[in-house]
Design brief:
Number of strands: 0
Order of helices and strands: HHHHH
Helix content: over 70%
Radius of gyration: 17 Å
Length: 140
């Protein structure tokens, strides 16, 4: 199996691992929201932090949709640069989000993980979409 063809399943598996962890955080976000609050907090403070985390998780899911659309449409499936970038950042995000989930890191850290590990590959995916469909370049 060549290096390029082994990137495709690795990329798919790391994206799915990242997606599963994000969905798990959605289901069990109560402890992470409480970690963002002082010891004595009001219901209004809790609702505000919960809403912020839900927005961040929702943005992440939207970026997954963009990246998976490019992957499954074939625009970036065999692009080795995008595959390597995507595999690296999604593997990193999976590890970081596991720490976020189990160590109950503050919610602000999630935004950093989102920016580096979700926005970056989705932005590159949009650029590939523009190159393929807008400039009529070959997907590779």
């Amino acid at each position: 199996m060549s290096a390029v063809s082994s990137l495709v399943p690795a990329r798919f598996l790391t994206i799915i691992a990242h997606l599963v962890i994000v969905i798990t955080i959605f289901w069990s976000r109560e402890n992470n929201v409480k970690a963002c609050l002082p010891l004595d907090f009001t219901q209004e403070q809790y609702d505000t932090e919960d809403k912020k985390l839900v927005v961040a998780l929702g943005v992440t899911l939207g970026l997954f949709a963009v990246e998976l659309a490019g992957f499954f449409s074939g625009v970036s499936m065999f692009n080795s640069s995008q595959s390597l970038l995507s595999t690296g950042v999604h593997a990193s995000a999976s590890v970081a989000l596991l720490f976020f989930l189990f160590e109950q890191w503050e919610c602000d850290i999630y935004w950093w993980i989102l920016a580096i590990c979700s926005v970056l590959p989705a932005f590159m995916e949009v650029l590939l979409f523009l190159a393929v469909f807008g400039l009529k370049k070959k997907p590779l």
